[in-house]
Amino acid sequence: MDHEASISLPRVKSRSYNLGLNIPTTLRTAPILAYQPGLRPDLPCVYGPIEFREYSAVLVAIDGLLLEGGIEAAFVGLAAQEHAAALVAASAKVCATFARTSALALRCNIAREITGLAYREFAIRVADSSLLQWFLRIGEIDRVKAPSKSTLERFNQWASAPALQAAHRHLIAQAVSPASATAAQPLRLLVPVDATEIYFDSTCLKTNIHFPVDWVLLRDAARTLMKATKLIRSEGLKQRMPQEPLQFLSAINKLAMAMSAGNRRPDAKKQRKRTLRQMKTLEHTIARHARAHRDLLAAHQAETALSEKQAQVILDRIDQVLAQLPAAITQAHERIIGERPVPHAEKILSLYDDDVSILKRGKAGADVEFGNKLWLGETRAGLIIDYALLAHDQADTALVLPSVVRLYTEMKLPLQQVWGDRGLFSKANEKELSSLKIKSGLCPRDPAELQKRLQEDATFRAGLRRRGGTEARIAIFKQHFAGSPCRGKSFDARERIVGWAVLAHNLWVLARLKLTQDREAAQAVAG
Questions:
Q1: Residue 307 resides in a domain
Q2: Which of 100, 206, 333, 420 could be bridged to 200 by S-S, CB 3.0 to 4.6 A?
């Protein structure tokens, strides 16, 4: 049975979004979003392999969680709060369209995360799959209107990271709530998720950049500037150049190969310095020609076939690189010619992403990683109950207590014990956890103390053994949901990707848990 969600939208200050909605000028104090899911055909009876039947059962179970647990209705309300500036004067028809589109955005992002497909491949898969059409509620009686690749990309930006965090908290509250004498468990779980224990760990969410070698940054700058210059010249706007833009690319590539091969020569250091000086000279020439063509496009954009937005993209691309090029040249000079170290805070790791941190974690095969620290906390059942993506690196010891406060104080979860590895242990954490009457399962740094606790406390031994499974949970989350590397090109984009990934992962875990509980209950009745 389909459910109707009625959300009252108060007048709040929020950001304004261009939604393409035809909003009348009449001001309404509190528009009502009446969301009624449309009718959809039943799923076709497909007796396929066991893998398909399990996959189909999980999607059907997630559909039930979204409706029965009020997750879909809560998300529509959160999206409405974010777009309140555009909806406060909207008609009832526009609000209903917005509600349906928000629900579709939620389901598209969840299904895409679970399938692990990119936008283009997922758009094709949706148009071809009756199961996904049923899940997305687009398989109507007379037609199927599948979203395009561009629409799916816009859906990924439909809600901000704080809104996704709020949806996550709503889902967790529903999952841990027990049944009462008058009401069933909100998600129809036979046994609610146990939130008395939490297992913390951190990892690096790698960004999609290559290893930041200084002279490779110069090559990247030359490529971006000359490709943008080629686009401008193809529109008929030309300044005098000694050679074509692609020939400059050929020259910078030859110097890059010479720089790489210089290590194999007896006078490697001297040769690398000589090559870098040639790269610097060529880089200044390339920057000069790119700047001239950039100014030409800015002055004569109307004379080209480029739209204003297309031209602005090219201008921004050139400006972004030209603004960083002097610092990138100085960095390469200091490290290769001057043989002087550059402080981490002043290093340019990528010309295209400013929010990249250097994480030196000493892991096997990844002594140094480039990205953002991701903090996760999971329950014994594998549900990610707390998460945070950090813009700047922090010690793991400083992340334990804020997470405990979020769970214990703000979300009112019945937290009784916290587990973690040695990187999370500190005397301050032990003291604060004790004051909150929460038992600490953080692994001590002192080997003697660790050995003593292992010998005396069987519960501690079992907890640390279970904590090892958190490493597997992190691998599943990064490889299948968030992506490794993550495709977001800014911190905000990566934070939003993590929010969608956590929401989809938790629905996937809860669906599997519900199916397992129902199957065990059926077997108990039959046996």
A1: yes
A2: 420
Quick one: which of 131, 136, 139, 134 has its CA closest to 48?
A: 131
How many domains, in total, are found in the chain?
3
Secondary structure class of 70 (helix, strand, coil): coil
Q: Has residue 186 been placed in a domain?
A: no
Give the CATH number, domain containing residue 446.
3.30.420.10
Shared domain for 319 and 368, answered yes or no, is no
Q: Is residue 66 part of a domain?
A: yes
Same domain, 381 and 513: yes
Q: Three-state DSSP class for 191? A: coil
> Which pLDDT tens digits describe the chain residue by residue (527 residues)?
344 333 333 333 333 333 333 333 333 333 556 666 666 777 878 887 999 999 999 999 999 999 888 899 999 989 988 888 888 888 888 888 899 999 999 999 999 999 999 999 999 999 999 999 999 999 777 778 899 999 999 999 999 999 999 999 999 999 999 988 888 899 999 999 999 999 999 999 999 888 888 889 999 999 999 999 999 999 999 989 999 999 999 999 999 998 888 777 778 888 889 999 999 999 999 999 999 999 999 999 999 999 999 999 999 999 999 999 999 999 999 999 998 988 888 888 889 888 888 887 767 667 788 899 999 999 999 999 999 999 888 899 999 999 999 999 899 999 999 999 998 999 999 999 999 999 999 999 999 999 999 998 899 999 989 988 899 999 999 999 998 888 888 899 999 999 999 999 999 999 999 999 999 999 999 87
Q: Which of 323, 346, 369 is the last residue of a domain?
A: 346
399 and 332 in one domain? no
**161-176 vs 491-526: helix crossing angle, rounded to 10:** 20
Helix (H) or strand (E) holding 202: strand 197-206
Cα distance between residue 123 and residue 76, in whole Å: 23
| Model pTM above 0.70 | yes
Q: Which domain holds residue 248?
A: 214-346
